[in-house]
Structure formats: structure tokens, C-alpha cells
Amino acid sequence: MGLKAVVLGAGKGTRMKSDLAKVLHEVAGRPLVSWMLEIVAASGIDETVVVVGRQADDVAAVLPEGVRTALQEKQLGTGHAARVGLEALDPDDDDIVLVLPGDMPLIRHETLEHLVELHRGTGAGATLLSCRPADPTGYGRILRDGADHVLGIVEQRDASDQQLAIREVSTSVYAFAARHLRPALADLSNDNSQGEYYLTDVIAAFVADGLRVEALGADAIEGEGVNSHDQLAAAAAELRRRINRSWMRSGVWMQDPERTYIDADVTLAPGVRLYADVHLEGATAIDADAEVGPSVYVRDCRIGAGARIWYSVLRQADVGIQAEVGPYVSLRPGADLREGSKAGTFVEIKNSVVGKDSKVPHLAYVGDATIGEGSNIGAGTITVNYDGHQKHRTMIGDGVKIGSDTMLVAPVSVGDDAWTAAGSVITKDVSPGALAVARSPQKEVPGYAARRRARAEQEQP
């Protein structure tokens, strides 16, 4: 008896009022459909098909290897979508087929496992997942008889006032016996207010055929789908709470978890300290005893043990052991700060190596450069890396002292232990141990201030 899944991801998501397909909207660094597929995979599913429609190629592009797609060319309802997915899946009669939406990132894989266990244990034709939200608006209501047996599901738009008072709702998550699901989907009618084929109608059909239908209750939060941006934000907030709670239990300190934003694919070592208003995104990895924040944005970066970062923005950068970044630093892609190095106040670095124990303390731009070990880059220094057509590289050796307000016009190199005088424009290579001075001699004009005032008075009307 195999276990297979159909994930419904073809919907337009009209209420999102967005050009992006609903299942591609991200929460905690992953598209909604990716969350669903991770949950499905953790539940022991053998094979999964995602039904796609709007932006089908874009949805297919985010799917993991081994997950297939089935194209629903016309969106004719959830029942039609399930039929398209089932045809692509082609399960054996003895298989169990899970059908679930692509927009429920808060459901836990343990809940799906319990759903399958109940289905197997009772021999039901269908087992559905239900919940009792505080506000059931928008959900299909579960109908039961006097013995509490499930009779069917009525969509809200087709429900009577009495049925709308029912608190138990369907989450649109089902386990079906494949042998019964196939003919039931084929027999669906679209005789309803929307003119669509409802998957929910399968439940009443099963009951009419004498098949057993079971329901498993879940926490209301697990049944919450995403149909609007406010629901997307609510789902993101809950996932952040789960992610943060997990990291704190693993030894990560957070000053204010409610103001700490960590994507699902970020990795943190025990002993990391996160201050308020930290955003960690993408494939970021932070080693033990690093301190990040307050007010730091990091994406796809590696941060070494004991590093200290605050009030800064980092993208695709490496920060070494015991390195210091901030405040107000921008590390752009390719920035590589080695052990004990520093990027200080109002510094921007991109595509450059800052060697061990080297410092770029403040008010500098370092682009397309390699800085050796133990060097110091004075305030106001700029590596002039662009000639209007292409980028060029600056090479700075070990133990170099770059004077304040130095312009290093690339391509240029500064040898080990060399110095540049403040205010210099360096256009030629500097020899090791030398002092390079490239500025105009100071000139003094006596009496200038008085003459300037006199001229201004004559120019007045």
C-alpha cells in the first residue's frame, strides 16, 4: 500500500491581488508551495505531484528534484484539479492518496502522519482534516448526523444560515483510498453557485455509496490557509515564532524574538547572540559566539565565530573569526573579511579581500581590491576601480598605511610596509617600504580674504 500526494497549486489567488502566483509568495524565505512539499516529504510520502496552472513554469522551477507537475489548463475547481493530479500520479488501487492545498504552511508533518494512521486504522474511504477556527468565514462546513458521523461538506457560498453557524470546518486536507477516489472525481457535477467541480462533494458521494468517512481534528492554526496578504503576514509571523523558538532551544540567545527575523534555511551555532531588529535571510550561516545586531540585515553570508556586527547590511559576504563590522557598513557580494579584520563606520566593501587584522575603520569605499594582513586604510580612502568601461583591481600588501583621503586609481598596487600621504591620488605602483606622495604643493595667497570682501562689496547693487 503506497502513500502518494497531490498538492493543488494551480489557483490564481485572486484575493492576493498580485501578479505572482499565490503558491510562489514567500514566508520565512520559502515559497508557500515549498513549505507544503517539505511537510509532505517529512510525512513519508512516496510520490508527489503538484497541480500547476498560473505561472506553471515558475512554480515548476522551485520544486525539488523528484516532484512532478500536472498542468490544469483551465481552473475549473478543486475537484477538477484533483482529477488532473490523480491522472498524472496514476496510483495503484491499494494506494492512499493525500490531497492537500499548496497554501497551508502551518500544518505539521506529524498531523499528516496521524491523518494517514487514522485512515489506515479505520479502513475509511476518506479521512479529512478538520479544525474549529475562531472565525470560520470562507471555509467549508462539515455536516454530521445525530450520531456524529460525517455526512458531507458544504462550501460557504452554498451554505444555509443554519449551516453557516457550524463551527467545524474542512481544512481541504484529505486522505483517500485511491480505488474510490478515481470514480468519485469522474462523477463530480458542477451544479453549484460557482459552476465549479468541488473536491468537497466527493465526501458526500462516498457517504452515499456507503463508504466510511472519518475526520481528524487539528489545531485551528494548522488549518489556516493563505488567500490574502494579511493571512500571508499572519502565517509568516507564526513560522518565525516556530523558527525562533527552535533556535533558542538549541542555544541561541535573542534579545527580542518578536523583532528577530530568521529564514528557514539559515543555520546558527549554539552561543550566537542576536539583538533586536536582525534579519537573517537565504543561506546565511553564523558560527558560535558571534554577535549580530541591533539593526542588521544579512543575506547569503557566512559569519565566523566571535564576529561582531551591528547597524549594517551584508549580502553574499564572508566575515571571518573575531572580525568587526559596523556601525553603518555595507558589505556587498564578494566582500571577504578575514580573521580579526574590521570594517568600521560608513564603509562600503565589495568584491574585495580584507586580510587578517587589517582595518578599514571609517568613511571608505573598497571595491575590487585585495588588502594584505595588518594594513590600515585611512578615512576617506577610495579605490577608484571603474574607468567608465570596465573594473580594475587594487592590490595592497601587508602592513600598509594608507593615508586619509587617498584615491587609489586602479589598476595599482601598494607594496608591503608602504605608506601613502593623506590626500594623495595614487596612479602608479608604490614600492615596498616607500612613502608615496601625490598631491599639489600647498600654495598661499596673502591678503586674499580682504580682496575678496572688497570685490563682494563692489558687486552689491
Question: How big is the Rg?
Answer: 32 Å
CATH architecture of the largest domain: Alpha-Beta Complex
pLDDT < 50 runs, ≥5 residues: none
Largest sheet: 12 strands, parallel
Mean pLDDT: 94
Percent helix: 10-25%
CATH fold naming of the largest domain: Spore Coat Polysaccharide Biosynthesis Protein SpsA, Chain A
Task: Give the termini separation.
Answer: 100 Å
Structurally, how many domains make up the residues? 2
Which CATH C-level class of the largest domain is it?
A: Alpha Beta
Q: What's the name of the CATH homologous superfamily of the largest domain?
A: Spore Coat Polysaccharide Biosynthesis Protein SpsA, Chain A
Question: How many individual β-strands?
Answer: 39
Structural class: alpha/beta
Walk me through this protein's architecture:
The chain is of the alpha/beta class. It has two domains: 3-223, Spore Coat Polysaccharide Biosynthesis Protein SpsA, Chain A; 253-436, Hexapeptide repeat proteins (UDP N-Acetylglucosamine Acyltransferase, domain 1, 3 Solenoid). The protein is 21% helix and 30% strand. The strands form seven sheets. Strands 12, 13, 15, 16, 18, 19, 21, 22, 24, 25, 27 and 29 form a twelve-stranded parallel β-sheet that branches. The chain has a nine-stranded parallel β-sheet with strand order 14-17-20-23-26-28-30-33-36, with no helix packed on it. β8 and β9 form a beta hairpin. The longest helix has 21 residues, at 229-249. The model has no long low-confidence stretch (mean pLDDT 94).
